[in-house]
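Look over both lines:
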Amino acid sequence: MKPHVLIVEDNFILAEELGDLVEQELCGMPVIRNSAEAAIRLLPDDFQLAILDIEVVDGTTYPVARVLRDMGIPFIFVSGNDPGSVPPEFRHAPFISKPYRKEALVRLAKSASDSFH
């Protein structure tokens, strides 16, 4: 069974690009949502990793990150925001700036979750 990856991204083109990356490079099953509220409604679910844009249509994904952290599900922030603007509680979380290099994101995903080795 393919590992499920939650993607929270409100830019349709970037969401599709991330979904393709998850399928092709990580052999995973992407589940894409464009808002924090829609993502939280999916939890708990069987996710091995989450890729979170920080600013989405209904605010930020920090509430999603809190739920994921409490559930022990690894996540990566992929954002155009300044990494220094991330709240202290999430400064430990992997962060990659947009525009990102595909290879760098794949490497981060593999190091964040054992499901992709």
Summary: The mean pLDDT is 94. Residues 44 and 79 are 24 Å apart (CA to CA). The radius of gyration is 13 Å. The beta strands are 4-8, 29-33, 47-52, 55-56, 59-60, 75-79, 95-97.
